[in-house]
C-alpha cells in the first residue's frame, strides 16, 4: 500500500498539468523550450480522456501489473494526448560528451529532428552532429539508416547503424509507446535500495528485444534502464545501462535532461539536452537522401 506522500506528489503533478497552457514558451535563456503548437495541430485537451489514472499511482492496489506501471509512466510524462498530438514531432538539441578509451573526452553538438509514425517502425528520425573535425547526419526513415556528409549520402558502418537504432529501441520512448509498438510489459519485482523504492519491469518488443526499466515507486519516473547487445563477431553480450538525471517539467510532463550511457560498468557517453521544441513543421526532404530529395524536386 502506498503512503500519503505519493498521493500528494501525484496531485501536484496533475495540478501542474491542468494549469500550464500549451502555448507557454520559456524565455530563450532558459534551457527548456516549451512546445510550439502550429495552427494545424489540435490543442491538447484540458483533461486526458484516454489516460485514466492508473490504480498503481493512487495506491489503491497492492498487486500492480507491468501495464499499470507503464501507464503511470505515460501519465506523468504528459499522457497519451500529449504523446500522440503535441509530441508527435519536434526538435531536440544538446551536447554529447564521449569518454574515449584513453580517458579523453570528445565533445559533440547535436540536433535531433523527429516525426513519430503509428509505431516505431514508421518513425522518421534525423540527428545532425557537429564536432570540431566533422559535420554529418544520421537518418532513420522507416527503419532504414543512412548518413549524409557534404551533401552526399553514405552507408554507415554496421556497428554505427546498430548503435543508432539501439539508442531508440532501448529508451524511455519505447516504454511510453509500448502499446503502439506491440511490446509486452511485465512486472519483475518491487525492490528497495538505499531507502529508494522502485519497480523493476521488463519490456519485450515484437522483435524479442528486451529492456529492463527501474521505475521510482514514488514519482513513477524511470531512474535507469538496462539491456544487453551482442555485436557481430562477439562471443559474449555487452551490458549497457542508461541512467536518467535532472528531470524537468516540459509540456506538462517530466523529461530527463541528462542521460549517461554506461557500458560494462564504465560511462562512455553523456547527453545533456539544451532545448526541446514540439509541434515543429518539417519537410520530407530532411529524412531523404540528397539524391532522393533532388529527384523529388528537380
Describe what this molecule looks like in 3D.
- This protein has helices spanning 4-19, 55-58, 66-76, 80-84, 158-169, 172-176, 290-296, and strands spanning 89-99, 105-115, 124-130, 135-141, 144-149, 152-154, 184-193, 196-204, 210-216, 222-229, 238-250, 253-263, 266-278.
- With 298 residues, the protein is α+β, with helices and mostly antiparallel strands.
- The chain has one domain (4-296): Clam (outer membrane lipoprotein receptor (LolB), chain A), CATH 2.50.20.
- Strands 6-5-4-3-2-1-13-12-11-10-9-8-7 form a 13-stranded antiparallel beta sheet.
- The model is unreliable at 1-52 (pLDDT under 50).
List the helices and strands and how they pair.
Layout: H1 4-19, H2 55-58, H3 66-76, H4 80-84, E1 89-99, E2 105-115, E3 124-130, E4 135-141, E5 144-149, E6 152-154, H5 158-169, H6 172-176, E7 184-193, E8 196-204, E9 210-216, E10 222-229, E11 238-250, E12 253-263, E13 266-278, H7 290-296
Antiparallel strand pairs: 1-2, 1-13, 2-3, 3-4, 4-5, 5-6, 7-8, 8-9, 9-10, 10-11, 11-12, 12-13
Amino acid at each position: 500500500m502506498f503512503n500519503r506522500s505519493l498521493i500528494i506528489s501525484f496531485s501536484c503533478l496533475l495540478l501542474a498539468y491542468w494549469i500550464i497552457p500549451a502555448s507557454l514558451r520559456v524565455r530563450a535563456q532558459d534551457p527548456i523550450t516549451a512546445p510550439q503548437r502550429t495552427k494545424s495541430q489540435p490543442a491538447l485537451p484540458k483533461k486526458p480522456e484516454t489516460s485514466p489514472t492508473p490504480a498503481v499511482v493512487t495506491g489503491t492496489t497492492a498487486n500492480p501489473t507491468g501495464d499499470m506501471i507503464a501507464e503511470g509512466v505515460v501519465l506523468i510524462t504528459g499522457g497519451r494526448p500529449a504523446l500522440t498530438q503535441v509530441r508527435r514531432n519536434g526538435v531536440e538539441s544538446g551536447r554529447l560528451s564521449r569518454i574515449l578509451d584513453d580517458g579523453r573526452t570528445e565533445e559533440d553538438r547535436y540536433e535531433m529532428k523527429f516525426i513519430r509514425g503509428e509505431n516505431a517502425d514508421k518513425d522518421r528520425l534525423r540527428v545532425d552532429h557537429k564536432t570540431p573535425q566533422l559535420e554529418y547526419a544520421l537518418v532513420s526513415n522507416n527503419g532504414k539508416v543512412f548518413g549524409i556528409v557534404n551533401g552526399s549520402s553514405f552507408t554507415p558502418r554496421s556497428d554505427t547503424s546498430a548503435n543508432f537504432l539501439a539508442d531508440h529501441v532501448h529508451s524511455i520512448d519505447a516504454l511510453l509507446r509500448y502499446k503502439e509498438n506491440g511490446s509486452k510489459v511485465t512486472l519483475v519485482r518491487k525492490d528497495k535500495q538505499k531507502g529508494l523504492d522502485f519497480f523493476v519491469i521488463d519490456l519485450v518488443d515484437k522483435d524479442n528485444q528486451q529492456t529492463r526499466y527501474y521505475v521510482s515507486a514514488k514519482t513513477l519516473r524511470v531512474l535507469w534502464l538496462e539491456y544487453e547487445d551482442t555485436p557481430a563477431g562477439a562471443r559474449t553480450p555487452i551490458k549497457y545501462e542508461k541512467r536518467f538525471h535532472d528531470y524537468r517539467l516540459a509540456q506538462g510532463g517530466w523529461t530527463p535532461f541528462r542521460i549517461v550511457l554506461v557500458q560494462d560498468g564504465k560511462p562512455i557517453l553523456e547527453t545533456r539536452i539544451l532545448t526541446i521544441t514540439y509541434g515543429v513543421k518539417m519537410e520530407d526532404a530532411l529524412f531523404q537522401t540528397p539524391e532522393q530529395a533532388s529527384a523529388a524536386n528537380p
